[in-house]
TrEMBL record:
Pfam families: adh_short_C2 (PF13561)
UniProt keyword list: Oxidoreductase
Domain of life: Bacteria
InterPro entries listed in its UniProt record: NAD(P)-bd_dom_sf, SDR_fam
Single GO term (MF): oxidoreductase activity
Organism encoding this protein: Chryseolinea serpens
Family: Belongs to the short-chain dehydrogenases/reductases (SDR) family.
Coiled coil: none
Name recorded for this polypeptide: 3-oxoacyl-[acyl-carrier protein] reductase
């Protein structure tokens, strides 16, 4: 198992890639701290804990709004108290308000930056203070930062910030053996993507030479590698997991 005895915090882990990552980490032997916010996702979180425990792993759920530094700090502290240390942080929590730039409100702007950028920035700060040496930080971005999709101006500004913060922090924290990387998925088979119009689904599939979208486990495979000891010499990188979509 790649993550045996490692303690991992995963933000936004109630659904989608975050949930799949939490369950995979449990299978790989990690102690998993599953962060969620919406009470409607409580059942989903408990299902993940049950799967992890049935595989012989350990997991706890921590409800926290990671856009608030006090709650983010409490999340890290609870992880450390429960398992004695922190070895892996996966910043996956995200919201997406997709509008033309001329229609974005100040409220839209502030809410998205709070969840998508502020939470990552202060998570890195906490990791620098509380994480064990030789730890792993994986921040989720999106391959859309390299594209020119209409309505993605605010979202891509958020994710572009995450990418650059990650590069800088990899330099600042490297002396502790901590690696910091970004995973930028393309379209992925999640419940959220399933709600998109069929025309959009077809167009997105055609962007890859494989003419399909990613399975969740294909993204999780990369996250798991970066969280493992095998990735000790990979840092400051943005890895696109998008089937070569252009």
């Amino acid at each position: 198992m790649k993550l045996i005895h490692k303690t991992a915090i995963i933000t936004g882990a109630a659904t989608g890639i975050g949930k799949a990552t939490a369950e995979r980490f449990g299978e790989e032997g990690a102690n998993v701290v599953i962060n969620y916010l919406d009470d409607n996702h409580y059942t989903s979180v408990q299902e993940s804990i049950a799967r992890i425990e049935s595989a012989g792993g350990k997991a706890i759920a921590v409800k926290a709004d990671v856009s608030r530094v006090d709650q983010l700090t409490a999340l890290f502290q609870q992880a450390k108290e429960a398992f004695g240390g922190i070895d892996v942080v996966v910043n996956n929590a995200v919201i997406a308000i997709l509008k033309p730039i001329v229609e974005v409100t100040e409220e839209d702007y502030q809410r998205m930056f709070d969840v998508n950028v502020k939470s990552v920035f202060f998570s890195l700060q906490l990791a620098g203070k509380l994480m064990n040496d030789n730890g792993r930080v994986i921040n989720l971005s999106s391959h859309t930062t390299a594209l020119f999709f209409p309505n993605y101006g605010l979202y891509d500004a958020n994710k572009g910030a995450v990418e650059q913060i990650s590069r800088v922090f990899s330099k600042e924290i490297g002396h502790k053996g901590i690696t910091v990387n970004v995973v930028s998925p393309g379209a992925t088979d999640t419940a959220e993507f399933a709600t998109r119009p069929q025309e959009l689904k077809d167009r997105v599939k055609a962007m890859s030479g494989m003419n399909r979208i990613a399975r969740q486990e294909e993204v999780v495979n990369v996250i798991t590698f970066l969280a493992s000891d095998e990735a000790s010499w990979v840092t400051g990188q943005n890895i696109k997991v998008n089937g070569g979509a252009i």
